[in-house]
Amino acid sequence: MMERAGITVVPMGDNYAYLLPRGEGRCLVIDPGEASPVLAALGQRGLVPQAVFLTHGHADHADGVAALRAAFPGLPVFCGPGGRAGTVIPDGAALPLSGASLCVLHTPGHSADSACLAAGDDLFTGDTLFGAGCGRVFTRDFGAMFRSLERLGALLPRTRLWFGHEYTLDNLEFAALVEPGNPALADYRARVMAAGGCSVPGSLAEEL
Asked: Average of pLDDT values for 67-94?
């Protein structure tokens, strides 16, 4: 567990869950793939979850939901269009929660129900966009993934990116095979290494 830019990052293998502060000791839990590390982080931070948001329904992002709901009865769970693991929020709509607006962006490609969550200058990308890469296209709809990435690329360059997995160094290693003379790749790798291998938050400007 670590805190970056006021957001609690909960590593689970190469997965990340996030605790997004919502004021008054509350938080939004994003992608609890495992319950134990999320519950531990909540306890250490003294936070109570206001709700859960799933960027998609794959087990490595959603398996902790049942245990969280057992620990916090009545805890609402939200997901994007096409999702089945919670209350579906339409594309472009906000989560029905008090406090600052959290907007859902439907970004299919990795899965049909893939969605990103925009919270001001922060974007939780799930498995749509990673550091120096994108998610595997399990849908086989490469056009949908391309359009989703174009949509994210149109956001403000200052947008901070919170990836669903820590794949950045592996992605940069592959990118360096393709473009061995690209100094931006070496600079990016050096920054991630200096941060102990953790690339979140990334920036949309850098990905562009």
From this structure: 97
Cite the active site residues: 56, 58, 60-61, 110, 127, 165
pTM: predicted TM-score of the whole model, two decimal places: 0.96
Q: Name, in order, each residue with C-beta under 8 angstroms of 183's C-beta and a sequence gap of 6 or more.
A: none
pLDDT band, residue 100 (cuts 50/70/90): confident
DSSP track, the chain: -EEETTEEEEEETTEEEEEEEEETTEEEEE--S-HHHHHHHHHHHT-EEEEEEESS--HHHHTTHHHHHHHSTT--EEE-TT--SSEE--TTPBPS-SSS--EEEE--SSSTT-EEEEETTEEEEETTEETTEE---TT--HHHHHHHHHHHHTS-TT-EEEESB--HHHHHHHHHHH-TT-HHHHHHHHHHHHTTT---SEEHHHH-
CB 52 within 8 A of CB 78: yes
* Separation of CA 93 from chain center: 18
Report whether pLDDT(70) > 90: yes
Q: Which of 143, 87, 91, 94 is nearest to 114 (CA)?
A: 91
Averaged over 4-22, what is the pLDDT? 96
Could you identify the residue written with the tokens 């473009």? Answer: 179
How sure is the predictor about 77, in pLDDT bands with cuts at 50, 70 and 90? very high
